[in-house]
């Protein structure tokens, strides 16, 4: 068990310890972060001392830290991965997020295991299997609808397994763990944390006869995920952990988006406080923000709620993979070295360093960075003259009347560079007289209590009212701690005078004791025990899509009844054309060429078929095949000969050990 069924967990990303600490301070109940190695974001690793610093801070609020160990591993990497698991466990980490089932066959520490989104959990059967195999929290595929999430919840045990779902951030167009384009074209591997983001490239789309369907469109690039309006429905469907994407994102993004979802979840918790099934935060305290969170202020490709409420035709960011920002006004005049703008809202202020952009005549996004901004007229609010960093003459298709967006507001950036939140745990204080002096007892909102005593003669207060006010003031000074006082009670037989120095020392000693009591009371998340005898895997045959890259993973699936187990795509055994990406996104549907869309349209019925299409980017050519029964698209291609040749050279120079089904050449 990890979360109780009524607890909601806000799970934030952290590129490093400082960003993780900021996430905690902005209300995260848990943070996920890369360990020293083997995380699915290459270059986002963290040293043990930094992890220890983050974990110590998180645990003060009973927030948790999850370590990503979610790549597929070769046989020669398993020992290092096992050793790292023990190291992060020793550092106090609360869970490992894993993809490779071979890890479950190793001598791991008694740390809780979570199933990464890379395990591709789309069905109730797969979710139930992972729960029974010992995974305590599972990250569902982003493509699931509310009904499908509810079906997974119905098939699993809420007391044993928490459902986690991505609610914000960049979207992988492929089912996670089912994308091999990077490896086919470069030899790098998305399943090993090294994606080249081929989905963000522009493509020509042609049919089987070579006719152009779309020109230079980013047809595999999705808008960004935003489930702000669906949180209540996701809770009702059974989601309890709400995950923000972004282990490459900067400090401002993590602060802002964590604060945004903290605010929304707290509103829901408060609204349901008196309901038949009340909800609660998964960690301690409350958070106050010194700004108003706004997801539009961060980099985004515009937003979509993807498939949560069913298939929609506007989920793609086909024109650009960049952030278009918000419309703020239009061009009124062009000069040799300046541009004049009129803002839609006269109160809008432009700043030196702001980022502006616009769409050219080909609907490509063109950036326009402000070097200097000044009002064009002191008598006309909303009129601005800006001097771009780049030459005005080189700004393609910039013209009078053109709408201008802002995608970087330096005032916002500078605001988030400062202290922007305060997280506190509420407590109640009681000062009582004891024979030897006085005792201060602090009891926090979680029920933890601690006391401190001071030997001090009992001296009657000369001015009781003034003396009590002084006591309240000195005892209420918790500003330098993680606590805030809700109430102070005095348990005296008569008004006593207590020196300020004594009160301050009592408060400091009691806070230290209370933090120690909280630390002692934090229990490590238990490791779930797999069901015995081992439950059968839902299928008895696994293709390369199962990502089995080491013999321990093979042993795991064999133990669970799988008869035929192919090697991972990275083993280089799939040299012909295969599905390099499987997606719920359908290019035909998005371009209004889906046969299902044409049903019932007079004169169209039967004329539109789901024939293959082709994607072309330079010398790269991929085929799109459409599986209409499950409503999925397969991006088909094969491994480059140069990748295979490089692999042979690498194996001769330094033989690697991994799972194969065929004899080594």
Name some characteristics of this structure.
globular, TIM Barrel, alpha/beta, 665 residues, Thrombin, subunit H, 33 strands, seven-stranded antiparallel beta sheet, 4 domains, single chain, eight-stranded parallel β-barrel
CATH topology of the largest domain: TIM Barrel
Summarize the amount of helix as a percent range: 10-25%
- Subunit organisation of the chains: single chain
Count of helix runs: 15
Compute the separation of the termini in Å: 47 Å
Low-confidence stretches: none
Provide the domain count: 4
Q: What is the molecular shape?
A: globular
Tell me the name of the CATH homologous superfamily of the largest domain: Copper homeostasis (CutC) domain
- Percent of sequence in beta strands: 25-35%
DSSP E strands, number: 33
Radius of gyration (Å): 29 Å
Please give the largest β-sheet: 8 strands, parallel, barrel
CATH architecture of the largest domain: Alpha-Beta Barrel
Taking strands numbered 1, 2, ... along the chain, how are they ordered across the largest sheet? Answer: 1-2-3-4-5-6-7-12
What structural category arises from helix and sheet content? Answer: alpha/beta
CATH class of the largest domain: Alpha Beta
Verbal overview:
This protein is an alpha/beta fold. It folds into four domains: 7-170 and 224-289 and 291-297, Copper homeostasis (CutC) domain (TIM Barrel, Alpha-Beta Barrel); 172-221 and 570-665, no CATH class; 322-417, Beta Barrel (Thrombin, subunit H), CATH 2.40.10.170; 424-521, no CATH class. It is 24% helix and 28% strand. It contains 15 helices and 33 strands. The strands form six sheets. Strands 1-2-3-4-5-6-7-12 form an eight-stranded parallel barrel, surrounded by six helices. Strands 8-30-33-32-31-9-10 form a seven-stranded antiparallel beta sheet. α1 links the parallel β1 (7-14) and β2. α1 (17-25) packs parallel to α8, α4 (124-132) packs parallel to α5 and α10 runs parallel beside α11 (500-521). The two termini are 47 Å apart. The model has no long low-confidence stretch (mean pLDDT 95).
């Amino acid at each position: 068990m990890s979360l109780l069924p009524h607890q909601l967990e806000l799970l934030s990303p952290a590129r490093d310890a400082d960003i993780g600490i900021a996430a905690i301070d902005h209300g995260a109940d848990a943070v996920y972060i890369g360990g020293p190695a083997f995380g699915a974001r290459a270059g986002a690793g963290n040293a043990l001392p930094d992890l220890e610093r983050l974990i110590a801070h998180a645990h003060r609020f009973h927030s948790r830290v999850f370590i990503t160990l979610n790549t597929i591993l070769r046989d020669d990497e398993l020992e290092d991965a096992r050793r790292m698991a023990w190291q992060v466990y020793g550092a106090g980490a609360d869970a490992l997020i894993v993809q490779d089932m071979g890890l479950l066959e190793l001598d791991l520490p008694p740390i809780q295991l979570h199933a990464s989104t890379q395990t591709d959990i789309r069905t109730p059967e797969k979710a139930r299997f992972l729960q029974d195999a010992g995974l305590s929290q599972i990250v569902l595929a982003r493509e699931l609808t509310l009904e499908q999430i509810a079906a997974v919840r119905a098939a699993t045990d809420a007391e044993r397994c928490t459902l986690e779902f991505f609610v914000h951030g960049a979207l992988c167009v492929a089912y996670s763990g089912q994308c091999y384009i990077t490896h086919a074209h470069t030899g790098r591997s998305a399943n090993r944390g090294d994606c080249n983001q081929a989905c963000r490239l522009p493509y020509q789309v042609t049919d089987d006869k070579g006719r152009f369907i779309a020109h230079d469109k980013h047809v595999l690039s999705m808008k960004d995920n935003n489930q702000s309006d669906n949180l209540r429905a996701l809770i009702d469907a059974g989601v309890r952990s709400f995950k923000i994407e972004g282990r490459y994102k900067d400090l401002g993004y993590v602060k802002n988006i964590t604060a945004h979802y903290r605010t929304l979840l707290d509103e829901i918790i408060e609204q349901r406080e008196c309901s038949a099934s009340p909800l609660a935060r998964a960690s301690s305290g409350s958070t106050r923000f010194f700004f108003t969170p706004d997801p539009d202020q961060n980099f985004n490709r515009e937003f979509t709620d993807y498939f949560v409420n069913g298939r929609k035709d506007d989920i793609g960011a086909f024109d650009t993979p960049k952030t278009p920002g918000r419309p703020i006004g239009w061009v009124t005049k062009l000069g040799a070295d300046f541009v004049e703008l009129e803002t839609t809202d006269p109160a809008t202020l432009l700043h030196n360093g702001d980022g502006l952009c616009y769409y050219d005549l080909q609907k490509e996004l063109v950036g326009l960075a402000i070097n200097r901004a000044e009002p064009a007229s002191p008598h006309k609010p909303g009129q601005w003259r800006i001097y771009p960093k780049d030459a005005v003459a080189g700004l393609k298709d910039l013209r009078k009347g053109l709408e201008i967006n802002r995608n970087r507001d330096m005032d916002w950036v500078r605001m988030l560079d400062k202290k922007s939140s305060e997280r506190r745990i509420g407590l109640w204080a009681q000062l009582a007289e004891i024979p030897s002096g006085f005792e201060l007892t602090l009891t926090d909102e979680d029920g933890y209590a601690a006391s401190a005593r001071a030997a001090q003669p009992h001296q009657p207060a000369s001015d009781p009212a003034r003396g009590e006010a002084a006591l309240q003031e000195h005892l209420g000074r918790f500003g330098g701690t993680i606590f805030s006082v809700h109430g102070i009670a005095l348990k005296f037989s008569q008004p006593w005078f207590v020196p300020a120095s004594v009160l301050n020392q009592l408060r400091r000693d009691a806070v230290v004791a209370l933090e120690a009591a909280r630390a002692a009371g934090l229990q490590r998340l238990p490791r779930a025990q797999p069901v015995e005898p081992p439950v059968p895997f839902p299928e008895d045959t696994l293709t390369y899509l199962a990502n089995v890259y080491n013999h321990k993973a093979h042993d795991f699936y064999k133990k669970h009844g799988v008869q035929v187990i192919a090697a991972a795509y990275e083993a280089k055994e799939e040299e012909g054309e295969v599905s390099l990406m499987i997606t719920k996104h359908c290019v035909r549907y998005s371009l209004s060429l889906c046969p299902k869309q044409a049903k019932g349209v007079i004169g169209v019925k039967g004329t539109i078929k789901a024939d293959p299409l082709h994607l072309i980017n330079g010398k790269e050519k991929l085929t799109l095949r459409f599986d209409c029964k499950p409503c999925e698209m397969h991006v088909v291609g094969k491994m480059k000969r140069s990748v295979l040749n490089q692999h042979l050279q690498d194996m001769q120079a330094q033989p690697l050990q991994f799972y194969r089904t065929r004899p080594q050449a």
